[in-house]
Each structure stands twice: as structure tokens, then as C-alpha cells.
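hiii, so i know i said id send this last week but things got crazy w the move. better late than never?? heres the sequnce for the chain we talked about at the cafe, plus the structure i predicted for it. fair warning i was half asleep when i ran it
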Amino acid sequence: MKDLFERRNGHREGRSYTSPETTSTDQPPTLENYAAYVGLPIEFLKSLGLKEYRHLGDPAVSMPYLDENGEVLLTRSRVSLTGRPKVKTRKGDKHRLYGLWKLDHARSAGYAWLVEGESDWQTLCYHEEPAVGIPGANGWKAEWAADLEDIDRLYFVVEDEAGEQCWSKLAGTPEICDRLYRVEFEGAKDVSELHKRDAARFQERLRGARKYARAWLDIAETEEQERTREAWAS
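okay and structure toks below
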């Protein structure tokens, strides 16, 4: 029903992107298969601390989350390539942002990509793009804003309806909302898919996406103007 009506909050309606990779795969999540799935060299993934192990008798890939000193904060594991759940957190670990040990790169560059999950962050890291991974579309916590101090611009990639919810959480965080920019890729669901479609033009596409990203301040102003017009008409 929502597709019958124009959305009035500044977001696109009826144009959500559906990835062609929606079917499950029977391939076990070994490190080799995971590397092939995300389109990244296996040696590069190993350099980030990824390791293959057995989870309840089945293959899985562990992914350590490090702090800015390189100490392990928590570990998450890829237990499926496309099934549900894809990722599990080690029991007792508390979620944090992924990529904290490389935030100096973001501060020197003056910007960082905010993406959902580990694979998008790994893809950006491979292309030497400053980034931070949020553990799940609904995983953002306001207290993590302190980790993003001194980064001038934060580009959040909106993937789907869950991404819209994450965007709302980010926009509702006073410490970062005035540095927040909204990005949507044409023809690709997320960073990983953009890389797999055309790795040679990946950074060019990212530069274009940053150039045309919409600042939260502009979006908020537009939404306020719309609410004012509706109130006046009423």
C-alpha cells in the first residue's frame, strides 16, 4: 500500500533496490568461500585477523574487532554466506564499532564511510577508504559517537528499510547528526556489491557518491519546510 502514496520525509518511495543475490547457497562458509563471496583476496582477509574454525562442527570464519591499540574487544563469526543468521557474536562479548584500530586514517582523510556489517568495511579497507562498520542495521548505539570525534564527514550508506531505521538512529544522535551525509548507490545494494560489479571503477563511484551525498542538515531543513507548508495548508 505504501507504494501508492508519495513519501513526504525526503526519502525515495517505491524505488528500493533488490539485490540479485537473494537466494541461499549451499557453500559452507570457509575462509576460501567467504573470500570468493566478497570478492577479496584471502591473504588480505587474513591480514585483518580473519580465521577459519569449526563452529558447532561446521566451518565458520571468525572476525576480531580491535580497539585503537590493536587489542581484541570482541569476536564475531560468519556462520553462513547468505542464510540466516549470517553472523553470530561470541557469547559474553558486547558489540562495538568495527574498524576502530584504523580510525586515524579517517581523521587524517577528514571523512569516514559508515556501513552495515563487516564485509562492507573489509571491502572499503581493501581499497584504502576510511570506514567504520556498524554490527547490524539496528546495531547503532548513541554512545559510540565518541569514537567518531574529529572526523569531519560521516557518509552512511542506506541499503534498505532496515538501513532507513539505522539512518533515523544516526540522525537522532546529536553528537554526529550535523556531520552526517546520506548515500544511496544506483544499481547496487551496498559497498560489497558495488565492488563485485566493477572493482576497477569502485573508487570513482565512491567519489561520485560522496560528491552527491545529501547532508542531514539539508534533509532536515527540507522536511521542516514541508511540515510548515502542510501545517499552513491545514
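btw The first helix runs from residue 31 to 38. thought thatd interest u
miss u guys!!
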